[in-house]
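User: Predict the complex with 4'-deoxy-4'-aminopyridoxal-5'-phosphate.
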Amino acid sequence: MSTFDAEKIRMDFPILQLKINGKPLVYFDNAATTQKPQAVIDSLIKYYSEINSNVHRGVHFLSEKATNAYEAARKTVQKFINASKPEEIVFVRGTTEGINLVSNTYGLKNLKEGDEIIVSTLEHHSNIVPWQMLCERTGAKLKIIPINKKGEIIFDEFKILVTDKTKFVSVAYISNSLGTINPVKKIIDYAHSNNIPVMLDGAQAVQHTKIDVRDLDCDFFAFSGHKIYGPTGIGVLYGKEKFLEAMPPYQGGGDMIKNVSFEKTTYNDLPYKFEAGTPNIAGSIGLAAALNYVSDLGIDNVAKYEHELLDYGTKKMLEIEDMRIIGTADEKASVISFLVGKTHPYDVGTLLDQLGIAVRTGVHCTEPLMNFFKIPGTVRASLAFYNTKDEIDLLVKAVQRAQTMLL
Ligand code: PMP
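Assistant: Here is the predicted structure with 4'-deoxy-4'-aminopyridoxal-5'-phosphate placed in the model:
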């Protein structure tokens, strides 16, 4: 048993004290976005009331203060994911922008007709569509790693897909719809033994498991601040320096240049080459506050507690008649996606909402994955460290009630 005190931690999250439809909020939509602790909210208030100024431009007091805070946030991220240098940390809007940045820069520069990019069946749309767009522009082809009925990537099939045409691999570390933890280290090692770079979609990983980009040896890693208790509109693209250096800029504008003339513009050093225009300064500072908050809790403690909660929740949910859990991988994190009897996910979700329970219903931006399971979608309860076993008991009761109402 972990000694994690979720009840105490809940007090740090003002929104968790809300009542919804007269019932205490039970928030199980953490894979969509997480709630924010007071420390993150305070950091935003402090930024706008004491620091607000543009970065990298002014010599005045506030501009220097804002620049220092922005660059300190970058170092906090660097440390959190164990990157070698702050230059390898590019602030972006989120995972989606991180992946689009890589496909539009590395991808457009290096891929050509006949080349192949590998993704998996369980990817979020944001790790499918940017690569499809790249394929349309270059004539490259997308190859899909199959999964088994439990929702696990079939590693041997991945190995078969890798040929001398393969030029890039991009996979999710953890599936948002199923919670499957993919064997990313094995994928990276195998791809590297064939000289193929690998990008990890870390949107559902950073908040649940320790990330060490050097140990993983991934070439790119993207995540979103809002999924790790930070603000929306801020995220991170990590890239190995050798790749980032060789890539052309993504967007043009202020800050990403060294000198501009009508004849020739020279680009700025890393990471600014990829940060055109005024960045999300407040967001980066809020993200750093969130990462510090999680570090103080200890990501290993978080992972252990969430795992206990997942085991408990899975066991309890399976006690419900006609319960079908979608995604039963041996290695799983924090997601219980389910269907109950012949009920439609939307109907279950709507009834749960009336009881103050927030879950997500639908295809969770993974339409090909839902097609694989031949289902219209699922009801997804996604857990965070502030959830409790009592809340799971409430969910189980509410699902049973919905089941009788929808008979
Ligand atoms: N990948 C995965 C696995 C996700 O869960 C999400 C968000 N649901 C994304 C990518 C996209 O993240 P964002 O919308 O924050 O860019």
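The chain has two domains: 6-30+298-406, 41-296.
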